[in-house]
Design a protein that fits this description.
Layout: E1 4-6, H1 11-16, E2 21-27, H2 32-47, E3 52-58, H3 63-68, E4 76-81, E5 84-90, H4 95-101, H5 103-106
Length: 107
């Protein structure tokens, strides 16, 4: 399972109304660190699919959501539970560091 794309039309259904915990990757095509972390997120999505959904939101294509969630630097990751942001992680990190940040949601 890989991280799937969401947009302003699907965000509410995929993220806010999701029964599972959801990590939203706020990214952009031109962002090198965003592209570096993408395969790591795909691995985490595959390994922890029973506990965590991972979705990607392109900030250039969805500026309203980027503004709403105060995205000022990318990559930025927000963890949602029951429609509410419960954790924010900023910046590309190696897999062990990301898994440590997400330990409360994937272990």
């Amino acid at each position: 399972m890989t991280a799937r794309a969401v947009n302003e039309a699907t965000f509410e259904q995929e993220v806010l109304n999701n029964d599972k915990t959801v990590l939203v990757d706020f990214w952009a095509e031109w962002c090198g660190p965003c592209r570096m972390v993408s395969p790591i997120l795909d691995q985490i999505a595959t390994e922890h699919s029973e506990k965590l959904d991972i979705v990607k939101l392109n900030v250039d294509e969805n500026p309203q959501l980027a503004m709403k969630y105060q995205i000022t630097a990318i990559p930025a990751f927000k963890v949602f539970e029951k429609g509410e942001v419960v954790k924010t992680v900023i910046g590309a990190k190696p897999k062990p560091a990301l898994e440590a940040d997400l330990a409360a949601y994937i272990s």
